[in-house]
Design a protein that fits this description.
By secondary structure, the chain is an alpha+beta fold. The termini are far apart.
């Protein structure tokens, strides 16, 4: 009998092997020889006891493997994992992907609670087995993909993980999200069999800070507001102030800003009520153009349709020349003359930028009311 030849080709996202990035660094082997030819073992930190400690110092029977180690051994599912972890066996698998897991021979029976705890981070996935056909028994087991590590604790583990952990507990620990660093992970495989259809597996994951907003480093920000993505708006507004002459600066620079009282902070003034500050209509053409750029910068973070709608209402109510601009010296961080607090205001709009002790922005733009219309019909007969 002739056995069909089978070829396996593993493709990497970039270089022909599984691609792993942790903190934007290429994954290195778990055991890497140094210049003296001595193998250096990678330390694995686990939280099996609810405290972070080296796996070698934890007073429990624990098997722990990082995602790097799993990839190097070709372990992609829990079925693969059972070949490397003593005492771990799958006693049943559903077509849906659910698996009945047993550790130390303590397996779950029909109509009973789970005997092996299964956690994704701190979320329990195990459930009670039900009787009957199509009951979808077992634990919904995620793939071994984009994990920090896998911990298998041989039981009993009821003290730390409650009922359903008589045989032990399996923990899938995901990478912790970071407020400062980006990380990614990818894996791809392609398999062909002679006279057979090809198969493949591919996936990618990416994580990092979604947005650097206000108070990116501390509650009380430095005068230059490092890493604050909104600070460029205040820098643009300060360009307007620098373009003013002495008399204009005197009118624009005030003492204390408005008090913050919820939505009342940006309550609109009545028409005819005086607004303190420098009217944009009193500025030169070049200065008004700078104010227009300030408005454009203020609307950049918003959706295009929302920004266009806001500008429509501003133009309907007098445009840029209908605004009054003011700066506030009593909340100047660092006393450097770069004004951290400023605002644009009209009877139908307030854009209050408060950059002390960190950036908050208060906005209220009133829509142009619809003008009532009266229609009449005339008929003439002869």
């Amino acid at each position: 009998m002739q056995t069909g030849a089978r070829s396996v080709l593993t493709l990497a996202v970039a270089v022909g092997v599984s691609w792993c990035i942790r903190d934007v660094a290429w994954a290195q082997p778990a055991q890497q020889a140094d210049t003296n030819g001595i193998a250096e073992l990678q330390e694995v930190v686990v939280t099996a006891t609810r405290h972070s400690d080296s796996v070698n110092r934890v007073p429990l029977s624990v098997s722990a493997q990082t995602q790097e180690a799993l990839d190097q051994q070709g372990i992609q599912t829990i079925a693969d994992l059972q070949a490397t972890v003593p005492g771990l066996r799958l006693s049943g698998r559903e077509a849906s992907g659910n698996a009945t897991v047993a550790i130390r021979g303590i397996s779950q029976q029909s109509g009973t609670s789970a005997t092996t705890g299964f956690y994704l981070d701190e979320t329990a996935l195990q459930k009670r087995a039900a009787g009957g056909f199509g009951s979808q028994n077992g634990t919904p087991v995620p793939p071994l993909f984009d994990l920090e590590r896998v911990e298998v604790l041989r039981g009993p583990q009821g003290t730390l993980f409650g009922g359903g952990s008589e045989g032990g507990t399996i923990r899938y620990i995901q990478p912790a999200p970071s407020l400062t660093d980006y990380s990614g992970y990818g894996r791809a495989q392609w398999l062909t069999t002679q006279d057979g259809a090809p198969s493949y597996e591919a996936g990618a994951a990416f994580g990092g800070p979604m947005f650097y907003g206000h108070a990116s480093q501390s509650f009380n920000e430095a005068p230059d507001h490092p890493k604050n993505v909104y600070w460029y708006q205040a820098k643009r507004a300060n360009q307007v102030f620098q373009a003013l002459d002495g008399k204009q600066r005197e009118a624009a620079l005030l003492g204390d800003p408005r008090e913050e009282k919820g939505t009342s902070t940006v309550a609109l003034r009545k028409r005819g009520e005086r607004i303190a500050g420098l009217p944009v209509s009193d500025m030169t053409r070049d200065q008004r153009e700078l104010v227009e750029k300030v408005l454009e910068d203020l609307l950049v973070p918003y959706r295009k349709k929302d920004a266009e709608e806001a500008m429509k209402y501003i133009r309907q109510n007098g445009g840029v020349e209908g605004l009054t601009m003011s700066f506030y010296k009593n909340l100047d961080i660092g006393n450097d003359g770069v004004w951290d607090v400023w605002q644009l205001e009209s009877p139908t709009m307030i854009w209050y930028f408060r950059g002390s002790p960190h950036v908050h922005t208060w906005v209220n733009i009133r829509a142009q009311p619809q003008t009532a219309r009266t229609a009449r019909r005339f008929s003439i007969s002869a």
